[in-house]
Design goal:
N-terminal domain of MutM-like DNA repair proteins; Helicase, Ruva Protein, domain 3; 3-stranded antiparallel sheet; binds zinc ion; zinc; glycosidase; Znf_DNA_glyclase/AP_lyase; multifunctional enzyme; FPG_Glyclase
Length: 242
């Protein structure tokens, strides 16, 4: 048993993975999947087994950390802590938009200058840039005024600049709001996120575009499907050059 008796040295995040570094040179990886949730039960709490509780850690002070995952898309794994031992999918992860290095227009351009897929799909590609889900990509392209079907390597310098500013901006706003609760997402202390109230385009098909409305133009948010995922955008100010 890798975990028994080991001391937790650090807890960090890489992409959508929670990584717990142990003093025995192993790292535990947790991915919450679509709707997994970690519960932290204090030693004094009743430690009843919850429905869909598939895994738990018991700490030496009696605290229990439990993974509840009704849809079973979550993952718990462990691997040696050396860089060579990283699982292949971890080695392939792209850049962190909120990493120590700021996201620059050059970094975005380097990612996409050889990418022939639509910018919407390219931004969702976790081997290029991590942590952006469907909602945040729709919101970023909307705010940047970039058509979601525009080929990634045809973006202008100005568009790369806009994205490098807007992506971290949106992620910071979403973090401050506790994320987006569409169905059942809650933070680790049980709070629902409120960023969904700030969505300007996601889930708003048929609504008037707020950016165009500011310029006294009338345009309606439109929904299309790209690679099986819904894309919401404004056909007026998110111009396509095709
Ligand atoms: Zn618009």
């Amino acid at each position: 048993m890798i975990l028994v008796g080991a001391k937790v040295q650090e807890v960090r995040r890489r992409a959508k993975y929670i990584l717990i570094g142990l003093d025995n040179n192993w790292t535990v990886l947790i991915h919450l999947g679509m709707s997994g949730r970690l519960f932290i039960d204090k030693p004094s709490d009743a430690h009843e087994l919850r429905k869909h509780q598939h895994f738990d850690f018991l700490l030496n002070d009696g605290t229990r950390i439990a993974l509840v995952d009704p849809r079973r898309f979550g993952v718990v794994d462990a691997f040696p802590s050396s860089p060579e031992a990283l699982p292949p999918f971890m080695k392939r992860l792209g850049i962190e938009p909120l990493g120590e290095e700021p996201l620059t227009p050059v970094a975005i351009k380097n990612l996409f200058e050889k990418t022939h897929s639509p910018i919407k799909n390219a931004l969702l590609d976790q081997t290029k840039i991590v942590g952006l889900g469907n909602i945040y990509v729709c919101e970023a392209l909307f705010r940047a005024g970039i058509h979601p079907q525009k080929t990634a390597n045809t973006l202008s310098q100005t568009e790369y600049e806009h994205l490098s500013q807007i992506i971290p901006e949106i992620l910071h706003e979403a973090l401050a709001a506790g994320g987006s609760t569409l169905r059942d997402y809650v933070t680790v202390d049980g709070q629902k996120g409120s960023f969904q109230e700030l969505h300007q385009v996601y889930g708003r098909a048929g609504d008037a575009c707020p950016i165009c409305a500011q310029k006294k133009h009338r345009a309606l948010i439109t929904k299309i499907t790209q690679s099986g995922r819904s894309t919401f955008f404004c056909p007026q100010h998110q111009k396509s050059e095709h």
